Amino acid sequence: MVQEGALTALASAADSSQEHFQKYYDAVMPYLKAILMNATDKSSRMLRAKSMECISLVGMAVGKQKFRDDAKQVMEVLMSLQGSHMEADDPITSYMLQAWARLCKCLGQEFLPYMSVVMPPLLQSAQLKPDVSITSAGEDGESDDDGVETITLGDKRIGIRTSLLEEKATACSMLCCYADELKEGFFPWIDQVATTLVPLLKFYFHDEVRKAAVSAMPELLRSAKLAVEKGQAQGRDNSYLKQLSDYIVPALVEAMHKEPETQICASILESLNESIQMSGTLLDEGQVRYIVEGIKEVITASSNRRTERTERANAEDFDSEEDELLREENEQEDEIFDQVGDCLGTLVKTFKTYFLPFFDELSVYLTPMLGKDKTSEERRVTICIFDDVAEHCREAAVRYYDTYLPSLLEACASENPDVRQAAVYGIGICAEFGGSSFRPHTGEALSRLYNVIKHPNALDLDNAMAYDNSVSALGKICQFHRDSIDASQVIPAWLSCLPLKNDLVEAKIVHEQMCAMLEKSDSELLGHNNQHLPKIVSTFAEILCAGKDLATEQTASKIVNLLRQLQTTLPPSVLASTWSTLQPQQQLALQSVLTS
Prior knowledge:
This protein has helices at 2-17, 22-38, 45-62, 64-83, 92-107, 115-126, 162-182, 190-197, 207-229, 238-258, 262-279, 285-313, 320-351, 356-366, 376-393, 401-411, 417-433, 442-454, 464-480, 487-495, 504-519, 523-526, 533-545, 553-569, 572-580, 584-595; strands spanning 132-136, 148-153, 156-161. With 596 residues, the protein is an all-alpha fold. The model has no long low-confidence stretch (mean pLDDT 92).
């Protein structure tokens, strides 16, 4: 018992300290291997199992360079054990399944030669049939057997042997591990694993089995896709990937309809989203229709559950304990809707305008989510879905502006910074692609964006992303709707907010826009008598000081060229006064750039 405890403690130490454990490796590993090789009698089965666990965790911690030679010896022992006869209740079986998977994580592609040894018993464990006994509920005598869990359904009592289910769940989760780790190298096993795991998406005896099956689906598609792309698919092409996708995607949608646990339902949506990304345009219209119908059902079911909870909260016997439970359950609904948003976003990005007929149908389900009575997460996700439609369908999405833009403008004032960010980002997209349909909204958009930018706490960490996206949206109004605004006021206000430093994607876009304006000697940007020049130069200095974060290489070299032009074209007195406004490290940065 003491030895087992010591092994568990060592394994935890290695797992927590990761590569720092390397300096103890040479002192520790000989002891671990000795136990693995010598603890062969029945009384020390658990000890041997624990030594496997410890060795594999130590190996993962120190990495393959350090572990490689010992790993080969350890795998020889595991292989001989695998070949020997073991009793059904031997703990080594499930420890060994996990040890193999950790060795694979550690060795990566170098593990491939061992797969032919590992896979057959793993598939066998994953295919275990549940050991179920059914008696009538009236019969006397509870089962004395610890290893049996009983549930009563109507007038029947169902007993399930749990140890088999644990082994099955472990095996399923290891299969997912191998596919994830070996990528295209896993190709030879995809068919067997898919036909084993797809039916388990609806294995209601054990949550962990379903969770593992759900997580494995996109990994199998990824493995197939990479193998086809890299020519390692034994001569198979995209038609194989389509076949696999045709098998997996509808099965995920069907499982989503029937899933009783909200948390697993969210995981199914997450896997479905990744599977749609892998399958891309291999999905045909019928499958997209099936996915969309599934998503409608999920939204309806989730809304119904929320309504029931609201009713429960209004009951007389409602207490604080139940309130806590309700809050947790509603957070899970938010998670589900979040995943719905990701799925729809992926479909919009993949199919662009071809998806719009489906979006028309979904709008009936989505627009109520913008209501005041909804959670901020429901509002945020709905706005993000519209943002995706506006961005990827461009002119074709203009017809939705009347429905969604008023909600976006209103959401600029939301208490929740994530809702604000989604709203101001969408306003920027509509300004960019909306043309004359956006024009009537420019006045209100400007005042809403100003309010976000001028808020006293606008630059607090929580609000910074919303701030950067507001400045970016303001820039797009300047760029695409200059004739509808007082540019001599708006452009200097925009310039005064630069450089952006939080949303690095938007920062690069906005700083490139500033360069483009300066290259055209934009009079409103430069100001009367070049009065904004010091601000422009100091902004450029800050961008250059930040390395690659705030500008692409192209933009950075444009900035350098623009600064050199200013150096040669401006009167020395203007240059000197501009220079004097810079901080010392900015002056140094510019000097080194301009002289190099």
